[in-house]
Each structure stands twice: as structure tokens, then as C-alpha cells.
Amino acid sequence: MINSEKQPFTILLVDDRDENLVSLENILEAPNRIFLKARSGNEALKVALRNEDIGLIMLDVQMPDIDGFEVANILKSNPKTRDISIIFVTAINTELEHVLKGYAEGAVDYLQKPLHIAVTQSKVRVFEDLYLYQRELRNTIELKDKINKQLERFMFVVAHDLKSPLAGVVSLLQFMKDDERITSSEELLDYFKLMLDASTHLVQMIGSILEYSRDSHSKHSLEEFDVDDLVREMAKLLFPPSHISIEVDNKLPTIQTHKLKLQQVFQNLLTNAIKYNDKPKGEIAVGHQEDGEFYKFYVKDNGAGIAKEDQERIFNLFETTTNASSRDSSTGVGLNIMKMHVEEQGGKISVDSVPGEGSTFYFQWLKRMV
């Protein structure tokens, strides 16, 4: 619940009679409330356009210059003021035709003169809470956008700094691959090829990250590709320890989407499943099922598991679990980025986990993006 005592709420009172303005302010007075006053329709329009923080307008219907209906109509037609809630305060009858006219002009509620103090205070409190919740939501969205931009910038800088030395490693490996000291040993040659493939894959992935960071979301290209191939290739290039196996439960689908984003989700889940597996024989499984317009993918492991109190907050930025190994080595960024990738195309992500037995992460992904 928002603490309204600490957050200002601005109300514009509009009435052509001073005694009505004074009476209304006395009824609604509270420590956090700021009152603006206007004594005509024209003055109300000027005040509303000058003040961006108005959360509610208490608008008298009967005024000498332009009436409340006209004022509401003008306010709702202006992008700067159209979202302000309006309560009509009227001494005229509230028969259906007048009420409907008010709603048509943009009112959200009616109050009949003479005002009932408790009803008036209660209705205004409801609109105050709604306004403060909306403002908090806007602030949260702005903060999320700011963090996203910072993360993209961070990702660009890191990828840029890594690309050159990795490209040098690939060039050196390409030069060495025909060395007879390597080609003379079949086992050594196999290891060498794996090392070259992994390095080449990293360079390509870093190139994709750089492209992703340069372009806006709307410019990211859609690709049609086989998710099964993607996951199986990734399972090899992550080089899991010999005691950990990664299996695909069923044939994963072909999908049209932003490949890099889906790849990041799988890579994060598989990396964590490997990293935090504490069993002598680690088992990781990947699969999917149909879920309407989505595929519902899962990554299941038999690792350390996640405590119930951690299962919601691990997707928050910079949050880690109470698991000791997680506290020591996790930044709390990867799962948050993964959550954003899933949610930005309408999907949901969740985890089922039993401490000591393992975890299963589920996420939805659109079958086909357009």
C-alpha cells in the first residue's frame, strides 16, 4: 500500500463561487494534498495546462463562461491533460441524461450538491490512491528502462573489449591446426577442434551482442531456426564436466524469433544448471510442450535446488539466493535479463524447486514473432 502521507497529491478545485472553493478545500484538506483553484472554466483550462502534477479535478458543472461539460471536453482532447481524472460537482439533477452526458465528456464520477462530507472524502481518496499507484508504476517503468539501457551499454563495452583478443585466439588456433605435433595425435586433434569451435562460437556470439546493443529492439532481425540444433550445440560448447549430462527430452521445434535473445535464455539456464549442480551424477534435461500461441520450454536439473523464499526474488535485478555458492559467484543480473526477454514478447517465466533435489525453470516463447 502506498503511503499517501509522504507523497503529494494535487487537486484542482473549479467553482465560480469562493465560498464553495473554501468549503471543498476544508472537506478534502490533508497534509499531503496541494490545492489549486480556478473560478471559471477558462481559468481552469489555463491552470491545468500550466501544472503537470494535477491528479484530480473537482469541476463545477454550472459556470458563467463555459460550463463544466465543455471544460471536460477540452481537457480530454488535449494530450497533456486527457489522463487527469475529473469528478463533476453539480447542483443540477443527476437524471440519466445528465449523467451520461458527463461521462461522455470525460467525467469519472459525480457528486451532488449539497455535498455529503464522508462520501466526498471517500471518493477522492479512491482517486488519490489510483493516481499514486499509476505514478509509482510510471516511475518503475522509467527505472526499468534506465536499467535496461545501462545493461545494454555494459554489455556493449564488455563485448567490444572481448572481441579483439578472442579474434586473436581464433587466428592463432587456425594457424596451429595444421601443426604436425597436433595432427599426429587423434585425441589431441579432437580437443583442439573443440577449442577452435568454442572460440569461433564465442566470437560470433560477441558479434551478435554488439549488433544487438547498437540497434533498437524494433530493428532486431527475426530468424527462423531449429531450437533443437541450437540447444544441442550449446550443450557441447558449454563443456559440462564429465559427471554432468545434458539431454533433450523431445525434439525441440523450429521457431521464428530473435535468435540471440532465446539463445541467452537457454545459455543462462544451462550454465546455472551446470554451475550449481552438487550431485556426483548431474542430470540436466531440456524439453517443451505446446501452450497456445507459445511453446513452453523447460530446463530441469537435479542440483542443489532453491529455497522457497528465494524462488520469486531471484528474477529481480541484483538478487541472488541464500545458497552459499550463489552468493559467492552470482551477480544477480542474468536471470533478470532473461526474465525481461521472456516478458517483452508476452511470455511468463517461473521455477519449481525442492532444496536438495533440484529445480525446473519454465518459460514461454512465442511460436512465431511478426
UniProtKB/TrEMBL annotation:
Its EC number is 2.7.13.3. InterPro entries: CheY-like_superfamily, HATPase_C_sf, HATPase_dom, His_kinase_dom, HisK_dim/P_dom, HisK_dim/P_sf, Sig_transdc_His_kin-like_C, Sig_transdc_resp-reg_receiver. GO terms for molecular function: phosphorelay sensor kinase activity. It comes from the Bacteria. Residues 157-369 form the Histidine kinase domain. PROSITE patterns: HIS_KIN (PS50109), RESPONSE_REGULATORY (PS50110). This is histidine kinase. It comes from Mucilaginibacter pedocola.
